[in-house]
Give the backbone structure.
Amino acid sequence: MYNLSRLFLFIFMLIFQACARDQNPIYPQQDQYMKDPHSYGNPDEIVIRHLDWKASVSFQDQVISAIARLKLENLTGSRSLVLDTRDLVIEKVTSGPEEIPADFKLGQADSLFGAPLTISVPENCDLVSVYYKTKPKAAALQWLSPGQTSGKQHPFLFTQSQAILARTWIPLQDGPQVRFTYTAEVSVPKGMLALMSASNPQAVNETGVYTFRMDQPIPSYLMALAAGNLEFRPVSSRCGIYAEPDLIERATSEFEDTEKMIQAAETLYGPYRWDRYDVLVLPPSFPFGGMENPRLTFATPTIIAGDKSLVALIAHELAHSWSGNLVTNAVWDDFWLNEGFTVYFEGRIMEQVYGRDFSEMEQRLGFEDLKGTLAELGDSSRDTHLKLHLAGRDPDEGVSDIAYEKGANFLRVCENAAGREKWDRFVRAYFDRFAFTSMTTEKFLEYFETEFIQGDSDLAARIGVNNWVYGPGLPANALTYTSSRLKSVDQEITRFRTGINPKELKTAGWATPEWLFFLRGLPPELDQDKMEKLDAEFHFSQSGNSEILAEWLGHSIDFGYQPAFPVLEQFLLTVGRRKYLRPLYQKMIETPGSKERAWSIYTRARPGYHSVSVRTIDEMIGWK
Ligand code: BES
Ligand code: ZN
């Protein structure tokens, strides 16, 4: 009896400690902040701990009017707080609960980094309130007309804060080392639902005023807001889908495996620590596939294929609930710690839920992407190091297959070198140990040395970690991937190349990865007749699968396959996902005779793209 109660007490203590750790993150000491080249903030002196945001959204003016009340911790007795802003109109700043007017100065503005907002903070004061408005051109915000939504009746607003765009809608210390909790009260036009990266409403209310809480400390790049005509459907007791009414049924059945994915993730690397996991399906102009906003992944509607074939993206964003949102890259040079771990973890979730042969195919496709990126960047480019050098540059330039696929390849090398059991124990301990903190590459390597290598010089030699992290290109011990399912696709590609009619190809049972591999393996030259035959047999131009369609449209540009051009134009006029836009416009401007088409389409499509995509394509095609 005595022993039993001791056991209960022990278990209780364990649970209590785990919860206490959740609620009491270990914040960095003043000397533990790295210099962040992409932020003006001074968190090493005085740092934001909580944001209380009160905002009103006007679709008419395309403006958010807000008060950001910032709860501070003063580490050094500093008398000035420095925040990041970009294109914000600062109306008034006050200090303390009595709201005494505070002096502030908006510094010189840089078009990328914005302007530092320096606020005088009285002695012993731990609260400042910034009254401000956003500008219609705020880069994080996309204001959609009803015509850009699925229902065509209501406007829509969404944000994209990563990497350094949070400062265009909230004045914050906008670097990933600063973590804060938040509460918010947001007012939107009646009939609309507002959602944030926080606890969320599940139905429209009569007032149009919604309140939010995020009790776990998060970095600014995970601040998110969306508002529109949205409905909710549950997938499980802790998981559900938000989408426009006419998409909600399709979206919910597409993502019905999400709860299974959460459970798979939990068995691998420990409990899901963010309470709910919901997915918001955005209109097609969303510039990314997905964004891991905590508790509420933002996702492109282009992954709704009807057969769950593109749900790896959900596994990816879910995996960020550990890699990225729990343990966060300290500065953008450490981006691979977010994305490399996430691609690795995504593969493990996919393997558990859909089987090894499926995840192997996805890894092979990712590896092919990586080889393409390495060829583009050149083998000796510094941009091919895992640890990046982004000072003075847009951190967006670090978003490439290097962080994602080279990062994941490195982690798979580690797994293989030590065996899954040891590796998984290490990764899980890493997430536990560093939950709710930020991580530099160097700190990771130190932990890796002591907790994973553990003096095993053989293991260290098999991995060659420094070469991976600080060296260019692909190290010799990189994994190449074999997939028996893709081998048989290879055989069909060969048969097609030798002139066999598409009708004769053995494609029964092919899933999306097989089709993608097939399309990527087509010969470098195809005449009209061959393209027509392929299209007639497999209906690529009508594919409802965005990955397959985008691949096919790329070939259609390459080979001047006219029948697909109206589809290409329609695709580019509706979809704003940068991953698709970049190669399609690139091919058009490189293909003789297609350059004018690129300009004509882009001129019409550009007003409907998010600033993130506009920035990339503008630069690529030389828009002025
Ligand atoms: N966090 C990224 C998106 C991102 C990265 C936005 C850097 C801004 C700056 C997200 O998790 C992501 O990687 N999305 C991918 C998904 C894919 C790899 C499954 C995308 O959007 O394509
Ligand atoms: Zn990611």
